[in-house]
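Help needed: design a sequence for this.
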């Protein structure tokens, strides 16, 4: 195979960078705008400064293909919804530029009629709920689900990709604009009419994309990054045909424009033939998740195709072993030439923190094993220099990289023989409850004496400015341990009494002592490290600092027992013990890449098992072990599901099965597609599961047409990710739908998720309405039974 003459340089791409700013500047700007403290111009000025800083940072670090349109005020899928005018009628858009508050109404909902529903004058008089939200493939990033209707029309409603390309160009940066590909966009969406296949809308959608590409080309863009991560999924013939139609259309309409077809989060697998036949100029490969595809793709790719080699992990924080990577990459570069290869992360750097150098408090050894977005760009530049014949120029950096990898592999901080010994002693009986559910249920009902349709919440209550200030002052040493504990106890007591006043049946303590549902536990377990500025975006302005799981895990001492004891002491009602489950701790951490995920998860499960036992010994009759992230860890290919679900469910059962029959084990899951794993959820054998259903209008209940869920379940009736307060009637309607699929005696009444991120002004009326809805339906059911 003959390739054109090589230029001698290897281009460096990033595919996308974090949007949030090193000090979470975007969060502050968004929340100031939503609260009415600032106007749109202030928000947009902050956004422009962040984009300019991102472009400058990449240029300084040697990035060749700098992306534009990778920035978003909330979500890039929502940006695409706006770009193509796929705005549901409920949001009142009638054409023309889409108002900013309409954009945020789709993201967050709007209350309507409330003074704070829309501080900028574009509210909806009746209020509207937000679009459904779910996980972006198998990450902890959430996207807004496009909603399509029969007769769906598309129209160019936003020129954001063109505007931001021109903005970068005016600053002196020639960028490669990023678009979410039309096939993936349609496959990520949902049709209100179940008979409507979103892919059938492709013919109407392509002209809008074509117009965006035409304007980008006219503005000077030479390359476009077209993200089609659907290429790593199980695809049918119709999707392959849609891809062929899409890229044939683009090639015919704009033959001179070069497209980099970008796949990530896995290998192309049986989609490789389809990808290699598309008329695109480049193809990006995730060689972290699927390194074995490199050889076949490099051998089969046509001569003119540029291969983007995603060799630096865009999903995790570990420093690469650059000498090892060079050994794998050099044959490919020799074969294809530097003009037909790019070096890139496996996916957008959206999923990692920005700059490791901000972390001055990390253990020096652990820090030496890490790389955040800035450091990953530097790694890419080092690789590119070495691959272009400059290995001697960067030899010192290569040696440091290899030495760091060797030191991590040999560190006593990573490997603990006592943890390995305990894991080896796990028996099959340790993953089974003592009795079947019906026996447990009778014992629990006798002990707890709860009414039908018992009401509860998921765990956390609003963490107000005062709570955050107190925590920050305590962390800085400005507030003593005793004063901080007194403050948290006061908040806890007040919240418990308020729950009693409104009539909730099962209470929670509010979790005011906790910074994050994973971080709080990770800080008390061995094997975890934590950052100060290691924020990543979960959704909108919700950012998290995932713990870094670097070594074997054990629990030195109880983590929640004292706070549970205090909370139970101030009420006669049942108080749930609240723990985060092992699968969620694993999936919401930056996980070690030197052992199987299943092994790390079982280590965490044993630590949580100890905590469950201590809570029960202290008197807790209900213990909630949250597994909010179980679904998001599911592999993207169905052939790999069984292996994952087996060890994930086993890990949950390992931590939950050591209690007596009368101790009620709860769990919670949120914002994912659950219908396709309902059997595994049943196999967890939790006595009660609370689960997201309000935003999807009880769509989960479709699973119960063919699956008889055996235990008790709380299908959420209140979408806590929106400031909107649902009415009593809305909640009754959702509960009535639930009773069509589940027996009333199985049902609990609860919100979708914890209330930490909400304001008390929203939470109070929403929970009052929830209790009223439960009581009314309880009364209706009692009357019907007479």
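Sure. Designed sequence:
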């Amino acid at each position: 195979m003959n390739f054109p003459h090589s230029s001698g340089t290897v281009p460096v791409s990033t595919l996308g960078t974090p949007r949030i700013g090193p000090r979470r500047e975007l969060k502050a700007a968004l929340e100031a705008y939503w609260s009415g403290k600032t106007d749109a111009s202030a928000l947009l000025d902050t956004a422009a400064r962040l984009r300019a800083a991102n472009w400058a940072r990449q240029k300084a670090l040697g990035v060749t293909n700098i992306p534009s349109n990778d920035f978003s005020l909330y979500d890039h899928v929502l940006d695409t919804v706006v770009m193509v005018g796929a705005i549901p009628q409920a949001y009142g858009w009638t054409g023309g530029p889409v108002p900013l508050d309409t954009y945020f109404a789709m993201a967050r909902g709007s209350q309507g009629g409330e003074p704070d529903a829309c501080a900028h004058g574009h509210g909806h008089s009746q209020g509207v709920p937000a679009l459904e939200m779910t996980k972006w493939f198998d990450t902890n990033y959430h996207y807004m689900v496009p909603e399509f209707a029969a007769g769906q029309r598309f129209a160019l409603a936003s020129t954001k990709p063109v505007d931001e390309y021109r903005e970068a160009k005016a600053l002196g940066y020639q960028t490669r604009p990023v678009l979410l590909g039309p096939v993936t966009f349609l496959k990520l969406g949902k049709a209100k009419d179940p008979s409507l296949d979103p892919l059938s809308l492709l013919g109407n959608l392509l002209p809008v994309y074509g117009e965006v590409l035409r304007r980008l080309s006219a503005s000077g863009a030479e390359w476009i990054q077209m993200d089609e991560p659907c290429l790593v999924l199980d695809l049918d013939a119709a999707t392959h045909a849609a891809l062929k139609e899409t890229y044939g259309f683009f090639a015919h309409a704009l033959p001179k424009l070069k497209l980099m077809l970008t796949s990530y989060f896995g290998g192309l697998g049986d989609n490789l033939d389809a990808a290699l036949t598309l008329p695109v100029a480049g193809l990006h490969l995730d060689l972290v998740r699927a390194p074995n595809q490199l050889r076949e793709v490099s051998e089969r790719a046509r001569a003119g195709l540029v291969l983007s080699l995603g060799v630096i992990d865009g999903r995790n924080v570990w420093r690469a072993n650059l000498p090892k990577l060079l050994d794998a990459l050099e044959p490919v570069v020799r074969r294809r030439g530097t003009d037909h290869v790019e070096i890139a992360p496996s996916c957008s750097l959206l999923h990692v923190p920005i700059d490791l150098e901000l972390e001055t408090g990390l253990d020096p050894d652990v820090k030496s094993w890490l790389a955040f977005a800035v450091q990953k760009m530097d790694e890419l530049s080092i690789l590119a220099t070495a691959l272009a014949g400059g290995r001697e120029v960067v030899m010192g950096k290569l040696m440091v990289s290899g030495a760091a990898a060797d030191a991590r592999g040999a560190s006593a901080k990573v490997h603990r023989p006592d943890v390995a010994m305990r894991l080896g002693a796990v028996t099959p009986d340790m993953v089974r409850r003592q009795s079947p559910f019906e026996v447990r249920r009778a014992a629990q009902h006798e002990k707890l004496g709860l009414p039908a349709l018992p009401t509860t919440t998921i765990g956390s209550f609003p963490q107000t400015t005062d709570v955050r200030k107190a925590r920050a002052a305590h962390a800085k040493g400005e507030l003593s341990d005793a004063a901080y504990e007194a403050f948290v106890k006061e908040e806890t007591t007040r919240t418990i009494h308020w729950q009693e006043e409104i009539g909730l049946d099962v209470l929670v303590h509010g979790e005011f002592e906790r910074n994050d549902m994973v971080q709080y536990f990770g800080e008390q377990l061995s094997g975890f490290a934590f950052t100060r500025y290691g924020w990543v975006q979960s959704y909108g302005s919700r950012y998290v600092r995932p713990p870094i799981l670097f070594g074997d895990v054990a629990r030195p001492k109880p983590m929640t027992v004292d706070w549970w004891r205090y909370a139970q002491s101030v009420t006669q009602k049942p108080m749930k013990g609240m723990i985060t489950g092992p699968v969620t701790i694993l999936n919401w951490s930056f996980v070690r890449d030197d052992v199987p995920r299943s092994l790390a998860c079982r280590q965490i499960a044993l630590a949580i098992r100890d905590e469950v036992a201590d809570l029960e010994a202290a008197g807790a009759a209900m213990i909630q072990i949250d597994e909010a992230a179980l679904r998001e860890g599911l592999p993207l290919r169905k052939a790999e599901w069984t292996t994952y679900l087996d060890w994930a469910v086993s890990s949950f059962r390992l931590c939950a099965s050591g209690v007596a029959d009368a101790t009620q084990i709860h769990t919670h899951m949120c914002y994912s597609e659950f219908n396709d794993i309902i059997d595994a959820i049943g196999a967890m054998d939790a006595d009660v599961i609370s689960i997201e259903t309000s935003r999807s209008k009880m769509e989960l209940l479709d699973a119960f047409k063919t699956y008889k869920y055996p235990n008790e379940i709380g299908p959420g009736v209140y979408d806590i990710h929106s400031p909107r307060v649902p009415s009593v009637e809305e909640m009754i309607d959702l509960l009535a739908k639930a009773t069509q699929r589940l027996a009333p005696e199985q049902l609990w009444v609860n919100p979708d998720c914890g209330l930490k991120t909400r304001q008390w002004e929203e939470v109070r009326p929403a929970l009052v309405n929830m209790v009223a809805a439960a009581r009314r339906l309880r009364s209706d059911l009692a009357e019907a039974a007479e």
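The domain at 25-88+131-410 is CATH 3.20.20.210 (TIM Barrel).
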